[in-house]
Amino acid sequence: LIENDMWLTPPLLVVIVAFLTGYFYFTSNIDQQAIFDQPIVTEDHLPFNGYTIINESSLDLLVNLRNTENISQQILEIAHNREPRVIRGTPAQEWIGKWNPNQVMKLSEKGTWEVSMQKGSKIFVYANKEKSMARLSQVKFKPIQRTSMTMKKFFERAGNTSSKSYVYFSKDFRDLPPAMLHELEPRGWLLPPALHSPEIEVQENFTANMMWHLWMGSGGVTAQTHYDALHNFFIQLYGHKTFILSPPTAANKLYLYPTNHPSNRQSQVDFTSPNSTLFAHFGEVPGYKITLSPGDVLYLPPYWFHRVIAQDMSISVSQWSDSEETHLFWDYIYNQPLPFETDWQEQEMMVALQVYLQEFQEALFQDQGWIQSNVVQQRFLPLFGDYPKKSNHICHSDSTKWTQFRSSIDEAVIARVEETIEYFETLRKLDKRHGEGVLTLVFAQYVEVLCDAFLKVETINPFLQ
User: Fold this and answer.
1) How far apart are CA 282 and CA 288, in angstroms?
2) Taking the alpha carbons of 309, 312, 313, 315 in that order, is the dihedral positive or negative?
3) Can you give the pTM of this predicted structure?
4) How far are the Cα atoms of 90, 192, 213, 368 from residue 233, in angstroms, in the given order?
């Protein structure tokens, strides 16, 4: 208009503004519809039992990158806000079609690959048999069956919609053939958010480990609700996946397995038939429901819960990178010295650990019953039931000997709590909206890691109760 000497008269301006407003409203609704209004799941998936699905309009999840310059910076700003977002307009759009079943079969090296397989149940619950609680007779878990097959056989199984056998394949990019990885280049537009966080000073040698991972599987395959402590950019390449997202503050309604359990970070609840006696608050879990199409990038902030359901045969990739929280926990909190002596007997260690945890929960939450409410009742009681408290249990003993012992370590305990608590306070600040939920998850992990380090695994449950 300016180049042609056409001035915007008021009537013309009104018409143009009205047109543009309607256009952007319409295109915005098209984008939202593509995300939210696709057929979600067939009834037999039953993924939404227990969730209070929040109206999608109450959380604007969709971001269109209209400026192709500084894409990396735009994505970092999204991650800095610590809210889930579906991002469109990224270079991932150019990856559509490069990894479909035919291309993967063609590019993958000949031979067999290790595949996860389940018959009957679509829900995959990860289990690490190396965890210390795996040795307890009361702990029941079922490792996922693994078998070897060619990629051709895998996709035949994955595409068989009438089969009651479900296959799932995941692999680190470092273990994939170079010819496959070449198809997804360049990948440098996705940067690790933790290295660019203004809230935390990182050590000079902190590199924010970054991992790329491939996911493929049958339609219907469901990952049990869980959280990751990392930044996660999830990219859909083929097929469709539905995510149900819940904020970190939902932790106490999802009843997680303990940190040292084979299925840690995952919910104990059977979503197809939840036990309302064991899991009384499960029905209060908020859930944001979205469906990804090829080319969509989902940003998942650290500690956000997600349940993932493949709508059809699906191929996806993730980029994980260390979060500020993992940096704080493992490089600072975990390395803090503790006010314990190496020559203490088991009973002395147990009393010292009790004093330390009691002092810590009071200082951090101003709540002497925090561990009971957030660790014992949420994680241990559903697994083990009530432990009969005995009057002669060492931690409940009021004998003069143990009263004197507690007094002798009080000063050292308080000093150590004061030095360590500042790192937990930093966790509160990292996530402005959900920091309390993150703090709950990280402190519960801290409690359980300490118990695992200083107590016999069979004494952890009675000790905490």
Assistant:
1) 15
2) negative
3) 0.85
4) 12, 10, 10, 38
